[in-house]
Amino acid sequence: MEAEGSPVSIRSSSRTLAILGFHKIGEPPPDGWETWFYIPEATFVEQLSFLREDGWQVIDLASFLKGLAAPNSLPEWAALLTFDDGYRSMRTVALPWLLQFGYPAVLFMPTEFIGARNIFDAAEPEEALCDWDDLIALERQGVSVQSHGASHRPFSDLTLIEQEKELRQSKTTLKAGLGKRVEVFSYPYGDDGVSSYPYDDDDEASSRVLRKVRETLERAGYRAACLYGGGLTSLPAADPYRLTRLAVGPDTDLQAELRKEQSE
User: Which of 110, 134, 137, 235 makes an SS bond possible with 130, Cβ 3.0 to 4.6 Å?
Assistant: First the structure.
């Protein structure tokens, strides 16, 4: 049975994956300021509620990875909740609500900043990021910690050797600290070595860069990688190493965005 208010007329037999990209849930620190990346707690609850009411099924990382290879294993309208950068509000504000809704999630963590502060982004207020105790607690409660690189540098600023070091170093650090496999990567700033999504398919130079990045990810043992922005993903994915995400902020109208994507 469709959830009340669901867009029944535009459901189809294909598989659509909504990878939602969040950053910070809650208020800025006392000495900080409001930015688009802060989602008030009440707004976050409304967004989670909408997913349930509109019939979206929130999946965990294992289901997501299985779905990339076998799309029919996923529900018709599947959502993956992802959070970048590892802000401590992930544990203190977001996690209690995720648990209340019974929603799993993914946290992409830049490993050089575990237990530190977000000094990699001067445009944002400086505040605490998750430490190892936070990451272990999140893992135990349904949030899969995956790689956001080591130094949080954009791939466009790195050589191929440096990119591979970032991928391997972050993977090794998380595996050692959490005792788990790390198979998904989120490009810092959504930068995969080519300026941004979308790129020109006929641009030979861009295609060459993307091919090299993809080969590096495969060698390092990653099965998927996420951009930032670009909307929903139709499965089977054209490229599992350039998965688009719906960037979510305080003014994002999920109902409008998701139903717009569904109808296209």
Answer: 134
Domain count, the chain: 1
CA distance 237 to 223: 12
Return the H-helix or E-strand segment holding 81. Answer: strand 77-84
- CATH number, domain of 127, equals 3.20.20.370
The sign of the CA dihedral 193, 111, 124, 245 is positive
- Which helix or strand (DSSP H or E) is residue 19 part of? strand 15-22
Q: In the chain, which residues have pLDDT < 70?
A: 1-14, 195-203, 260-264
pLDDT per position as a tens digit, 97-140: 999 999 999 999 999 999 999 999 999 999 999 999 999 999 99
Q: What is the value of pTM for the model shown? A: 0.91
Q: How far, in Å, CA of 184 to CA of 238, rounded? A: 16
Let me know if residue 7 belongs to a domain.
no
